Amino acid sequence: PDGAARAVDVLVIGAGQAGLSTAYHLQRRGFAPWTAPPPDGGGTPGSYAVLDAEEGPGGAWRHRWRSLRMSTVNGISELPGLPTPDVDPCEPSSEFITRYFADYEDQLALAIVRPVRVARVEREDDDPRGRLRVVSSAGDWSARAVVNATGTWTKPFWPIYPGQDTFAGRQLHVADYVAAEELRDRHVAVVGGGISAVQLLDEISQVTTTSWFTRREPVWREAPFDARAGHDAVAMVEERVARGLPPQSVVSVTGLVWTPSLRRAAARGALDRRPMFTEIVPEGVRQADGTVLPTDVILWATGFRAALDHLAPLRLRGHGGGIRMDGTRVADEPRVHLVGYGPSSSTIGANRAGRAAVTQLVALLGGAGA
Ligand code: FAD
């Protein structure tokens, strides 16, 4: 970098579903894709760019475990403007989505710059209509508005339990999980009440013994997950973030859905839930009844938090511990939108959020290149 900040109207951080949807709508509304200016300084600087920390397309899907196949995901919404190609249900979602996103970026000629990790976002001055400075691993950028689309994958949540450091076995988070085979013949304690916990219990219990610990009794829904249930879940999370509370996990709102595979796991006893253990000891976990369960591996299926550390200099968090939102817009900082956050942290929600954010940014900035 030459030291001078590269200027754009809108800088998008993250190129998962949410960032790509935002880029699509920016381009549709006339924001020109940024390209590196030629050495003679001519050419058009462009008015939007997407910075993404990954080595290639796919967002967090690049890192999902291989057994998460197109038949076992919850349903992936297509990106705006390009239908999803035919899906082979057996293909790992990591491969399918990476290919689909790569085609998408190419065909729409989106301005994605990678690998670039954003370290922090700051206000350039006290002017509430002034520019934002984005400090990255590839130099500084200056933008009139920032759309943050960094997802949650890079911020796995590990709860803290007494004795955790003394454990002689292996501890891993779902974000580190590769395949059941690496856990063969070792007793695995799975912690957490979400979809990843039950899906991984199902597959790990086929190669070794497992036990399942959750803080609360898991809530199973008998009815299939339909549009109505989805709508209600989103509305509940939306209401929380509008009040400045941290978003809670969508499963805590929707409940777990029985699939034929999970019913077979239940029949094997793999979904017999135990109350949360009270302590970790070198050889295992101390259960609620005081007995020690010998354990080789603790798998934390305890979810993720929004990856927002780089926004800390903007001081967006309020008394509720979360960021008060007005749709995708940060209520107290109209230059910053969060897409794929809280109520929009699904592929369908991310699509809608990208569109909503761009509509508001056009109004804020007075159109592209203004
Ligand atoms: P991501 O895909 O996480 O993309 C964020 C991007 O931002 C990444 O490329 C990342 O590298 C980049 N980034 C992060 N920090 C920085 C930084 N500081 N600087 C630059 N770049 C950065 N949703 C569904 O709708 N259907 C499903 O079937 C489904 N299955 C899921 C399965 C699992 C195991 C998990 C954890 C989630 C699942 N979800 C599913 C929810 C899912 O997270 C979202 O649907 C979607 O992947 C989120 O897209 P995103 O664009 O918000 O984030």
From TrEMBL:
For this protein, the record's InterPro entries field holds: Auxin_biosynth/cation_transpt, FAD/NAD-bd_sf
Q: Does the keyword Transmembrane apply?
A: no
Gene3D superfamilies per the UniProt record, alphabetical: FAD/NAD(P)-binding domain
Q: Which controlled-vocabulary keywords does the entry list?
A: Oxidoreductase
What the entry lists under SUPFAM superfamilies is as follows: FAD/NAD(P)-binding domain (SSF51905)
- Claim: Oxidoreductase is one of the keywords in the record: yes
Q: Name one Pfam family in it.
A: Pyr_redox_3
User: Know the name of this protein?
Assistant: Oxidoreductase
Organism, scientific name: Ornithinimicrobium pekingense
